[in-house]
Amino acid sequence: MSAVFDDGLSLFGVRRMMEGVVPPVLCTASADRVPNVSYLSLCEYVDPLHIALSYQFFNRSRENVLATRRAALTLDDPYTGAGVTLQLEYLRTETEGPVFERLRAKLMGVASHVGMDKVFRLRGADIYRVTEMRRVPGRKEFPAAAPRVDLAANSRLLSERMAHCEDLSELLDTLLGGLSDLLRIDHAMVWLTDASQQALTLLASRGYEVGGAGAEISVGEGLVGTAVREGVPVRVGHMMNMATYARAVRDSAGESGLTAMLKSEIPLPGLKEPRSQLAVPLRARGRVLGALFVESLHDQYFGYDDEDALMLLGGQFAVAMSLMQPPEQEPPAQAAARPAAPVTAGPALRLKRFGRDNSVFLDDVYLIRGVAGAILWKLVSEFLRSGRREFTNRELRLAPELRLPDVQDNLEVRLLLLQRRLAEQHVPIQLEKAGRGRMRLNVDGTVIMESEA
Amino acid sequence: MALTDDMIAMLSAGVAHQVGGCTNAGRPVVCRGLAAQHEAGRLLVILSSESGFEVLDAIRQNGNIALNITLPENYRSMSFVGNDAIVRGSGAAWRPLVTERHEAFRQQLNRFGFKPEYTDAWYHARDQDLVAVRFTPMLARNQTPGPGTGNSITLKPIEFEK
Fold first, then answer.
1. Positive or negative, the Cα torsion across A180, A183, A184, A187?
2. ipTM (interface predicted TM)
């Protein structure tokens, strides 16, 4: 059976109507033609003839669809006020695969912000064939606002700038700076997965009062954690709308006795009142290395085109990051050929390490943990032992006590994270580059080291 | 059955209206409604004959109707189902009611950052296209998103004047 679409209409062309800014409306009917009308959480474009609808709860709509295999759906354009009505034929429910994962990631990304990830469980992605799509007649449409920038052209410019970067720090600053200058994205963060793939560490941010380097979240937490766990972009274009929707489900779940499954709401990171957010995974060599997260104070700031652009730029960043190993430097013995520094001047600095996770505290203030923490501990230990201030990346890579997870866990990234964390904290222990593949430790005080298991 | 006082109050609080039907051939159809009000145990719904022609045709075929009302500020949502819907009366007489409901809905969506152009687009209808549908609600369903969506909620018996 062929599909009947009004002239000029295509499912791809109405993708933006499926973003949930205006929730889709589903109409089903029982076998004896009693209609039921309800709002949907999510609608997802599958291909030119198919869409997927979220299946979260067994309710009247689902009962009707299973009985008749038919539904009508209306979608509203959040940019122009236009609308379309679709006739649908239910085909199947998928519980795995890319469509299911995309829907689940979107659902979880929103749900985890309001502590609803247990109740907002996606049971399946209902796949429908679109047999008919018509414009809603009589709408008084208004012109869509002009795009804020030429995304394709400016992304290309940014890509070219990134291609000229020679080290990771420059690459990171170029990416974040270019997002602001060229794409008018003023609030951005780069998150990295840790070696265990269980946590994410903030490498750098731009556009916030606090930099936050070294901050951690769990994989699966919020939009960023969801994008990493599922390996797909997650975008919310109308936070207030989605949060209200989520809270309605939360209240409804409470009435159904599901409150024991709920946890406290997680405060949104970054902007206090974001209206749009997008997290894209940073993928390279078949792995998700982290996520690029952007947000805005404006509704519906990021569209599919932004998603596409950031996926490409994030991919380029991830590949470059994973390849950016500086040339090997001279062996440690030569690197150490510098005069020993005095190690007992200035204020006392109590540096404490907990060996179970290599977390390091300076005067009881948390600094960093994991591989970056182990690196800091090694550098200061070596400094106290020999007075040496300069180190090569190579000696760190070969140091058995650091237990670097594998060659893909880029040492450069951990060093940059450590350097930025120390700089942001303005502590008397600082790390700076001392040439390619080499760094210098600056200590302004007398370090007393303590270690606990 | 009749609406509770709470339901009646919700009708004028700035709700979105969605009206569903199903043709005798089993084709589900849906459109936006423009206004609804309670009339002595019955519900009056105003549609645009231009955007709602399919729903009106389905109602004319079998009288089955579902009216969904949803309050944007909290997504509280319910629907009323009837099987005796009739399409009767059209024209400018319904404009004051539509204008009142439109204004309340606009104020609701304004909280979410929607500009007036959105509701203007959805509420655009010529006077001669305003059509009245009346039905007796036989059943009410909770449509607030969540596990209880679609469950019945209680209506009250119609009280006749003595």
1. negative
2. 0.94
